[in-house]
Input
Amino acid sequence: TQTVSQSDAHVTVFEGDSVELRCNYSYGGSIYLSWYIQHHGRGLQFLLKYYSGNPVVQGVNGFEAEFSKSDSSFHLRKASVHWSDSAVYFCAVSKNYGGSGNKLIFGTGTLLSVKP
Amino acid sequence: ETAVFQTPNYHVTQVGNEVSFNCKQTLGHDTMYWYKQDSKKLLKIMFSYNNKQLIVNETVPRRFSPQSSDKAHLNLRIKSVEPEDSAVYLCASSKGAWGGASAETLYFGSGTRLTVL
Output
């Protein structure tokens, strides 16, 4: 069974600060991990993903995430946030149904508030 | 740039009514999904279709039924709505081919907010 947990429901930082949003997972096989962002009133948008290779993956808008097998984590980071980064961030793990199907299981989300 | 289109954006209805939501994707993807997002932002998959075939059907009440005319369209019908159906329904698509890195990226529409009075 694959699950994903986000321990922080709400994170508040100031513009220009660095931020780390935490994600931990459990899995039973091949794993895809990804992060999505959801601005208020919008659908989710893909940020980045990890499948294999370099454990640090780069995404859009200066975001990066680091996969750690030992910690079962896939934390999202940004060195300097902008007010427009205020949104809900979802970590997701992928479950395969075999053949041509897969399903993303999302964490509970972390609301990032960036103050000016 | 929007490539997954959902209609309507909002819908308010009474308990017991039937509603239908539409979703279309212009990305040429093979797989489409419906997710339900509740008031606490929790996301739960409901259905997944690949090339018009149902491949994922999570435990949802029988009053929910997906409908796909072709791989670019996946509609959702709720036969007799209940108050707990109030939520945002998100449609998404992906290339759908397992084993490829691109298979896991989902593209979402803006959602349909359903309010059941």
Remarks:
- Chain B touches chain A through 30 residues (CB under 8 Å).
- The two ends of chain B are 34 Å apart (CA to CA).
- The mean pLDDT of chain B is 89.
